[in-house]
């Protein structure tokens, strides 16, 4: 009898324990699923309310691992492959972490007519124009075969460059690593470098309005690198030959990585062992020069004096280089041929925002807005301040230049609304019409696109 009672008690106890355990398990599962649904709802609300940044701090296009910017010729599809992959062989594939296409060597060989379409020669190797079977035109940079860069380092470089996408950067769209060759494929910029338009007699002088637009484009690209990229990137070689122009005269900054010493505790795919170095897209033969001291990296004329003394690049070093570029746009003088001495002489006679017109490119023949010239030049002078702390940041630069363009468009609209439409001449010189038609149409397209951008 005792044995039966003891067995009954044990059975009841075990049943109670099992019941409690099951009840607790059910409660935990309920709480877990409820929490997950709350998190999902919260995330969806945040996604619906947060604005998409399109350019730097105020409007930057930062590509995630699975999305592509509007300016990239590589279009995403739902299955992770790309719509213009159809013309490639089956060997083409995508680096999953960056979405960068791998181009077969034979496709590039065919697209460049066996690598005969040379458009530039840089320190890191030749650059070829490639007409792909898909109809896309790209630029192919073939890295020098004597490079010490291994396969792993090259893949890391592709990964890092693939993370930087912005409408004012020369975006990397693919790579090739076959037959002992390392190649980087970029968006093709049909109008070449800014330097060629400033100094080559083959090109018409850039209008003042277009020079300000170009400065704003470059500023937005640098702002993205400083404030939109994760982690932030310092360019370290801002110069006119590293600024390329597309068909509509929109400017983009070229970028490139090379392995250097570890300089930061921040690590992203071993980013600490990579610094942003000379962009060197191959459209300029200008070599990196060292006119002051050993181990100075950069281009003489654009170098921050603070960097020369400390050997440390900062974001303000890029601001200094951009200030030099602004004066280069204003005066069309080479920084390696006395531009800054010219600027300092003008600064002695100028008073804040008055008197800078004496350094304006003589080829403009007075066709510029005096107020704009003085405002842009005075701001450029702040960018090249000897004390880095007194220099603005790139976000400030974008705001100032955007305001200049916005005021310009407001004045134009006001003038158009108050003045009657001018009567067109009955006959126009055919020679002048032929020589200037393409320039006018490009500036008109650029003017319209910039007006929409400023109003965003």
From TrEMBL:
UniProt entry tagged with the keyword ATP-binding: yes
Can you say what this protein is called? Protein kinase domain-containing protein
Annotated GO MF terms: ATP binding; protein serine/threonine kinase activity
| Segments of skewed composition (Basic and acidic residues) | 439-449
Q: Which segments constitute the Protein kinase domain?
A: 113-404
Q: Which UniProt keywords apply?
A: ATP-binding, Kinase, Membrane, Nucleotide-binding, Serine/threonine-protein kinase, Transferase, Transmembrane, Transmembrane helix
> Which organism was this protein described from?
Eruca vesicaria subsp. sativa (Garden rocket)
Record PROSITE patterns: PROTEIN_KINASE_DOM (PS50011), PROTEIN_KINASE_ST (PS00108)
């Amino acid at each position: 009898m005792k044995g039966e009672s003891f067995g009954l008690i044990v059975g009841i106890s075990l049943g109670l324990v099992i019941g409690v355990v099951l009840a607790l398990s059910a409660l935990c599962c309920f709480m877990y699923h409820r929490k997950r649904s709350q998190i999902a709802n919260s995330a969806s609300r945040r996604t619906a309310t947060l604005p998409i940044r399109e350019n730097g701090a105020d409007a930057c296009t930062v590509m995630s691992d699975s999305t592509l910017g509007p300016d990239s010729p590589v279009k995403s599809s739902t299955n992770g492959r790309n719509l213009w992959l159809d013309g490639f062989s089956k060997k083409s594939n995508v680096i999953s972490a960056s979405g960068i296409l791998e181009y077969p060597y034979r496709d590039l060989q065919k697209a460049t007519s066996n690598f005969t379409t040379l458009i530039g020669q840089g320190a890191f190797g030749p650059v070829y124009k490639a007409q792909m079977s898909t109809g896309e035109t790209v630029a192919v940079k073939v890295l020098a075969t004597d490079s010490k860069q291994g396969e792993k380092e090259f893949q890391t470089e592709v990964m890092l460059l693939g993370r930087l996408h912005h409408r004012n950067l020369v975006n990397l769209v693919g790579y090739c690593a076959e037959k002992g060759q390392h190649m980087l494929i970029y968006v093709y910029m049909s109008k070449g470098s800014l330097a060629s338009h400033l100094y080559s007699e083959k090109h018409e002088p850039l209008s003042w309005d277009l020079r300000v637009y170009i400065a704003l484009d470059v500023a937005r690209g640098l702002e993205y690198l400083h404030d939109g990229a994760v982690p932030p990137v310092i360019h370290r070689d801002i110069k006119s030959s590293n600024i390329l122009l597309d068909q509509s005269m929109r400017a983009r900054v070229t970028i490139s990585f090379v392995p250097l010493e570890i300089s930061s505790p921040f690590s992203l795919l071993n980013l600490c062992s990579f610094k942003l170095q000379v962009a060197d897209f191959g459209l300029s033969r200008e070599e990196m020069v060292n006119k002051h001291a050993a181990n100075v990296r950069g281009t003489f004329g654009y170098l921050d004096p603070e960097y020369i003394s400390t050997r440390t690049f900062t974001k303000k070093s890029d601001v200094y280089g951009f200030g030099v570029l602004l004066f280069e746009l204003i005066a069309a003088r080479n920084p390696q041929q006395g531009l800054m001495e010219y600027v300092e002489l003008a600064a002695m006679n100028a008073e804040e925002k008055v008197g800078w017109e004496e350094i304006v490119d003589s080829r403009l023949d007075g066709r510029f807005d005096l107020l704009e010239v003085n405002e842009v030049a005075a701001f450029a002078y702040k960018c090249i301040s000897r004390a880095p702390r007194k220099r603005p940041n790139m976000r400030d630069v974008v705001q100032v230049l955007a305001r200049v363009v916005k005021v310009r468009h407001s004045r134009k609209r006001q003038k158009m609304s108050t003045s009657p439409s001018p009567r067109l001449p009955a006959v126009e010189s055919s020679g002048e019409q032929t020589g200037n038609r393409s320039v006018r149409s490009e500036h008109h397209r650029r003017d319209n696109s910039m007006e929409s951008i400023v109003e965003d």
